[in-house]
Structure formats: structure tokens, C-alpha cells
Write a structure and sequence with these properties.
Low-confidence stretches of chain B: none
Distance between the termini of chain B: 113 Å
Distance between the termini of chain A: 103 Å
Strand content of chain B: under 5%
Shape of chain B: rod-shaped
Radius of gyration of chain B: 40 Å
CATH architecture of the largest domain in chain A: 3-Layer(aba) Sandwich
Mean pLDDT of chain B: 86
Strand content of chain A: 15-25%
Shape of chain A: elongated
Largest sheet of chain B: none
Helix content of chain B: over 70%
Mean pLDDT of chain A: 86
Low-confidence stretches of chain A: 1-13
Structural class of chain A: alpha+beta
Structural class of chain B: mainly alpha
Number of helices of chain B: 3
CATH topology of the largest domain in chain A: Beta-lactamase
Number of domains of chain A: 3
Oligomer: heterodimer
Radius of gyration of chain A: 41 Å
Helix content of chain A: 25-40%
């Protein structure tokens, strides 16, 4: 076909060429064509000018309406990690399911009458059709109710609320459920991206970390104290999208996305886990009401563990009870009892009221001070300072305390951090009470020397021992990993601190008050404290069992304070209640941190020395 | 008359040659206009790709966080301790059966 046409064409053109010759030039025709063409051009150009120059906004606006969108980029809350980078709190996306009741009401009828009223008659064939669906006949709503764990009636009630345009059905829902709901294709049901906070370590860290509320704001503990740091900012962008919903142009940034910071704590989760489980066991065995353990690094002031019991599972909000949430190691105060005796001796040494070789006569085992009686467990006779600590002699420390001015003893206690904040900067920290008065009776001074008449938190007690262990240097405590603690402040002379630590070694030896505080392979130094709890009108029958100590004694690395509140039963002495916890926690802390055993009498291990 | 009736094609070509600069410029304009369209299209495609990649990154991040949770639920210390002691009958080495290596 094609070839034929090609052949025939030239013939035709040749014929026409011969016939038609442009003989005349018709000027009117030329003009007409010119004018028409000019008019069309003018019309086109003016239209163009109108669109482009005079009124471009209208079309631009219409185009923008169809293509400009605002997109959100959600910044999740930062993670919290322990010192080795183990995550303790993680945020994952979750969804909130919400309903627009007005939209639902447009499509669904809730009563028979309403349903019947929605009948429309098709004019063409006269058949009756319901324009609305009957709510209770739909199978989708019960499916939704089931997957969201809500009663259908409750759902209907939420939707039927007059004038409502927004109601949450359920929050913190995970992705598979959202996908399922999307497949139901129910009118008026939408979802919204939010964040769910998850704590992999559960109850072990619950008291320190605290909680966030549903809007991802910290409401307790570290989550609250460092809320601003952990919080990110959701970014908003104006973009142009094409027909398929792909972003083709970024127009402007409305809100800069700020990535949330990850917080690294000084907590060592391995030690923390041991501390919590040992504490929990001790509290349960002795039927105590509560307890706390604090582990400090004496050389940096970092908190390696801070465990409390009772605790709760932060992933299950139905368990939530405020009293379980408290970080007792920093909020609850108690009278520290005999655990302050080493500090009294330190005070006497600092103020040169005794020297380390002095022998003090404690017989006959009791004495009267200002008309009141102070007594020991039994008559210890003439003993030296180390023996006073080993036997926890009240008479011994009282005699030393009476040589001091009240102000001097108070100053020492204040130097060790009592009555002052520890510097961790957590919300809810209590500073205890260290009464500062001019006039003290002798008896009051004596009671102070064995740990009554002032209060402290477990953390403060651990800090005081950390100062002793660190050669008299005070470092501000830190819950954040802090590789450079700076120069500590020397609060008592180094040689005195070393002497006191040496004196405290007797506690776990034969005849000491806490043989159960022993740690295999290491020399430990510590002190027990069993104090009666004050009630309205005097001291009651409940006790607080405390043990604070250091290891290894030759060059301390860790300070641990254990407090068990109100142990019941026969053994309430700190040597039986708190000391075993100390021993177990200290053992794992020393092993995990590869601290070299310093107990030279215990040579059972094989030592491979380096050739240096 | 036939000599005055020049071939139209030659006329046009001659005209174009006379205004060679203008022709060249208009060709350049046309070319750059098309190139403009082309680059815009390329840009849009790249932006779309970038957007998809960052979406993918977000999704991977979410998956990573979920995996982290799973990992930490499984490697929780007290759980490992429990399994080691009860299931595997392991115990902490005592001084008798441990070797202390001093590092230089």
C-alpha cells in the first residue's frame, strides 16, 4: 500500500504544478490573513501576560493546593545506656488509635429509628435502600473492639457523644494491630504515630530511671531530671508531592528536627543486677519493709549501682504504685547508727584529741553522761581505736566525742557530706538532717557519736565511706559516666583516712561484728550499724540494719552502703542482715572490674606475673 | 517569470544564513530549555529517591530498636545468671581454680 501511494504522489503534484501558477497577488486576502494571525497572536500573548504577570497567584494557589503537603519526621526520645553501652531504656514507635465520631455518625446509624429514617427510594426502580449502615449489624465494629480490648457498648458510647470530633480509643498500640485496623477500613478511625518507652531491665532499674507518661515526658527519676536532654524535637517540612505521593521538592523547613540525645549512666548493669537480686533476697528473708544498696567508685565518685526494694516493673503500668517508685537510696533518711563511728575517730584524729596508738579504758561497759546511761554490749576493758571499731564500742567513741567541741564533730560530719546534697542532681534527693546548734549537752554529743540525732540517706553514707576510701578526697557524685572527675577536694588528711580504713579491717575478722561481710581473696574494711527507729515519743522496736564498707582495704576501689529497713525475726543485727549483701555485691563488683586480690594470707590462686 | 520564482527552500536557507547568529541563539535557548526540563526531572527523581531512602532508614531504625529490645530482654544479667546456674550448672570460679594474670 505504502509503496503504491509513494509512486502515485509525484504524478499528482506534477499535474498541479503545471496548472496552478501564482498570477496575481491579492492584497486584501494577504491583509485579512495578516490581521487574523495578528489578532490571534495578540489574544494569545495577552492571555499569557494575564496569567503570567497580572494574576499569577490564582493558578499558583490552585497548583499548591493540589501538590503542597506538610510532612512530619518524628524524633524519638533518646535511649538511656549503662556505662558499657547496654540500653536501659529504649523508645520504639507506637500508635494511638482515635476516632472522629462525626464522621462515623454520617455513615452509621445507632438506633432502629435512625436507620429507618435513612431509607431512600430509588426513583428509577422504586427499591428502598438504606443510606446508613446499622452500627450493631456491622461485623467490623466488634472486630475493632476486640482487637483494642474495649467493649462494643463502650465504643458506641464514645462515638455517640454529641458534638465530639476527637476521642482516643487506645494508645500505645503496636504496628500489627494498626495494620489490622487499617484493613477494616472503618470510617472515622485513624491512627497517629507516637512513642512507646520500653525498659529491658524491668524492675532492676525502675527506681533510678523513673517513668515517662503517654506523651513521652519524663515524670520520675532520671527520665524527669534529664527530660530536656532526652527529648527530641519532631521536625516539620513543607514539601511538594506528585500524583503518586512521592516527594519531588523540599520547599521549606517549618520546624528543625532535633535528634534526641542518648544518655550514658555510670551504672554498671552487671553490678546493678547483682545488687538488686541480693537486696531483694535479703529483704525477703528478713521480712523487712524496704532496703537500698549503693555502690560507688571511690576514685571518681561515679555511682556503679543503686538498687532499691520494693521496686516495680515499669513496662506494666497496672503495677504502678507511688511508694514502689521511690528511689529510696536518695529520698529516705535514717539514723546511721554505729556506721559513723569511724568518722568520729577521724574527727578526733584531725582535731588532735587522740593519736592512733591510744588505749582507751571502756570498763565497766557503761557510763553516765549528763544523767543518762550509755552502755556497750559487754565490758571490753582497755582497748585501742581499731578494737573500738571492731567491737563497736559506744563508750569508746563517746569518750572521744566528749573531748571534741560539738562544732568540731559537726564540722567533720559536714565534711563527709552529711546534711548536704551529694551532687548527683536527681529529683527528689533528700539531704538528711544534720542539726547545727551552738549548745549541745554532753549526752547529745555522745548520741551523735554513735549515729543518733541526725539522719542521712544511703547514698550520703556511701559517699562518706568513699571519702575515707579515696584518701580523704571528696568527689561530687555522678550518675552519669564521667571519665574525668577532676581533682577531688581534700576534706581530711590522707594519712588519717588510710589509718581509719586500716582500723576498719577488723570488722570481718574473728571477733568482729560482721564476719559475714568477708570477701574471698580481698581484705575489706567496713562498719556495721543497727539503729532503733525513732517513732513519735521515742525509739520503738523496729530497727534499721546498715553496713557500709570498702574494698580492697589496701587500696580501696569501691564503697558500698547497704541499708535494710525494719528487718523482722530473730536476727536484726546488721552483721547478719546487711553484711551478707555487702559481701555478695562487693565480690561481684571486684571480680567484674578485675581488681587485684590483696589478701596475701589467701594464696590459693595461681598468679602469672608479668615480666616487668 | 520563472527566474523570479526562486526555490522557497533556498530562500529560507539563505535567510537563515543571513541571521545565523539569531538562529544559533534560538537553538541554544531551545536546547537549554529542554536541558532545564531534563535537570528538573532528574532533581525530582533524586529527591524522591532520597526521601525513600530516609524513609527506609527510619524503618530500619525502628527495626533496630525493636531488635535491641529483644536482645536486651534475652541478655538480661539476672536471666543469664539463672540459666548459667540452674540449666548449665555453672558456678563462679573459686580462688582454687582461677589463674590470676598480671598485665604489664
Amino acid at each position: 500500500m505504502k509503496i503504491k501511494r509513494n509512486l502515485s504522489k509525484p504524478k499528482v503534484s506534477r499535474q498541479t504544478k503545471k496548472k496552478k501558477v501564482y498570477a496575481t497577488f491579492s492584497s486584501w486576502r494577504y491583509r485579512l490573513v495578516s490581521i487574523v494571525v495578528a489578532c490571534i497572536a495578540a489574544a494569545l500573548i495577552s492571555r499569557l501576560a494575564y496569567i503570567q504577570l497580572i494574576e499569577p497567584e490564582y493558578l499558583t494557589r490552585e497548583a499548591d493546593k493540589r501538590s503542597l503537603r506538610i510532612t512530619q519526621s518524628v524524633a524519638h526520645r533518646g535511649n538511656i545506656e549503662d556505662r558499657n553501652g547496654e540500653e536501659l531504656a529504649i523508645s520504639v514507635p507506637a500508635y494511638a488509635i482515635w476516632v472522629d465520631p462525626k464522621t462515623v455518625k454520617k455513615v452509621f446509624a445507632f438506633t432502629r429509628e435512625e436507620w429507618d429514617a435513612s431509607i431512600e427510594i430509588n426513583p428509577r426502580n422504586g427499591s428502598e435502600v438504606h443510606t446508613k449502615k446499622y452500627f450493631y449489624e456491622s461485623k467490623k465494629w466488634p472486630a475493632l473492639a476486640e482487637v483494642l480490648d474495649i467493649e462494643v457498648d463502650k465504643l458506641a458510647e464514645i462515638i455517640q457523644k454529641p458534638g465530639s470530633r476527637f476521642a482516643y480509643l487506645k494508645r500505645q498500640v503496636n504496628k500489627p494491630i494498626v495494620d489490622y485496623i487499617r484493613q477494616l477500613k472503618l470510617a472515622g478511625i485513624s491512627n497517629q504515630l507516637e512513642s512507646h518507652r520500653f525498659y529491658p531491665t524491668g524492675e532492676i532499674n525502675a527506681n533510678i530511671l523513673g517513668l515517662t507518661d503517654l506523651d513521652a515526658q519524663g515524670i520520675e527519676g532520671i527520665e524527669k531530671s534529664y527530660n530536656n536532654f532526652l527529648q527530641g524535637q519532631t521536625g516539620k517540612k513543607r514539601v511538594r508531592k506528585d500524583r503518586l505521593g512521592n516527594v519531588i521538592d523540599n520547599i521549606e523547613v517549618l520546624k528543625v528536627k532535633k535528634a534526641a540525645g542518648n544518655l550514658q549512666l555510670s551504672i554498671d548493669q552487671r553490678i546493678q543486677a547483682v545488687a538488686y537480686s541480693e537486696l531483694k533476697r535479703a529483704v525477703k528473708i528478713h521480712e523487712a519493709t524496704s532496703g537500698s544498696v549503693v555502690v560507688l567508685d571511690v576514685n571518681t565518685g561515679e555511682i556503679y549501682a543503686i538498687a532499691n526494694y520494693p521496686s516495680f516493673n515499669p513496662n506494666d503500668r497496672s503495677q504502678y504504685q507511688p511508694y514502689k517508685l521511690r528511689n529510696r537510696a536518695i529520698t529516705d533518711t535514717f539514723e546511721p547508727g554505729s556506721t559513723v563511728k569511724p568518722l568520729v575517730i577521724a574527727s578526733a584524729l584531725v582535731n588532735k584529741k587522740t593519736d592512733i596508738d591510744e588505749i582507751i579504758d571502756t570498763s565497766p561497759g557503761w557510763m553516765h553522761i549528763g544523767g543518762r546511761r550509755v552502755r556497750d554490749g559487754r565490758n571490753y576493758g582497755k582497748i585501742d581505736l581499731a578494737m573500738i571499731l571492731k567491737k563497736s564500742s559506744n563508750i569508746g567513741v563517746s569518750k572521744l566525742a566528749l573531748r571534741l567541741q560539738p562544732g568540731q564533730l559537726q564540722q567533720t560530719f559536714a565534711d563527709f557530706g552529711f546534711g548536704n546534697d551529694t551532687g548527683i542532681g536527681l529529683i527528689g534527693e533528700s539531704v538528711g538532717i544534720l542539726p547545727l546548734r551552738r549548745r549541745w549537752s554532753d549526752f547529745e554529743l555522745a548520741t551523735m557519736s554513735f549515729g543518733y540525732a541526725f539522719t542521712t540517706t544511703t547514698l550520703q553514707l556511701a559517699k562518706a565511706y568513699a571519702i575515707l576510701g579515696g584518701g580523704g578526697k571528696e568527689y561530687p557524685l555522678s550518675i552519669l559516666k564521667n571519665p574525668d572527675p577532676g581533682e577531688g577536694e581534700q576534706v581530711i588528711p590522707e594519712n588519717i583516712a588510710r589509718e581509719i580504713v586500716h582500723m576498719m579491717e577488723g570488722v570481718s575478722k574473728q571477733g568482729g561484728t560482721a564476719r559475714k561481710a568477708k570477701v574471698d581473696g580481698y581484705r575489706i574494711a567496713g562498719k556495721t550499724g543497727t539503729s532503733r527507729k525513732a517513732e513519735a515519743g521515742g525509739y520503738g522496736d523496729d530497727y534499721v540494719s546498715v553496713f557500709a564498707g570498702l574494698a580492697p582495704a589496701s587500696e580501696p576501689r569501691f564503697a558500698i552502703a547497704v541499708m535494710i529497713n525494719e528487718p523482722q525475726g530473730d536476727s536484726y543485727y546488721a552483721g547478719d542482715v546487711a553484711a551478707p549483701v555487702f559481701s555478695a555485691v562487693m565480690k561481684s563488683a571486684l571480680l567484674l572490674e578485675h581488681v587485684r586480690p590483696d589478701d596475701d594470707t589467701d594464696q590459693r590462686y595461681t598468679l602469672l606475673e608479668s615480666n616487668q | 517569470m520563472s527566474h523570479s520564482r526562486d526555490n522557497l527552500l533556498y530562500l529560507i536557507l539563505a535567510d537563515l544564513r543571513r541571521n545565523f547568529a539569531a538562529v544559533l541563539l534560538s537553538a541554544a535557548i531551545l536546547l537549554s530549555a529542554f536541558y532545564n526540563i531534563y535537570t528538573t526531572h532528574e532533581t525530582r527523581e533524586l529527591i524522591t529517591e532520597k526521601e525513600q531512602l530516609s524513609q527506609q532508614k527510619d524503618n530500619l531504625m525502628i527495626e533496630w530498636r525493636n531488635l535491641l529490645i529483644e536482645e536486651h530482654t534475652l541478655d538480661e544479667h539476672s536471666r543469664i545468671r539463672r540459666i548459667a546456674v540452674k540449666k548449665l550448672s555453672m558456678s563462679q570460679p573459686t580462688n582454687n581454680n582461677s589463674v590470676l594474670v598480671e598485665l604489664p
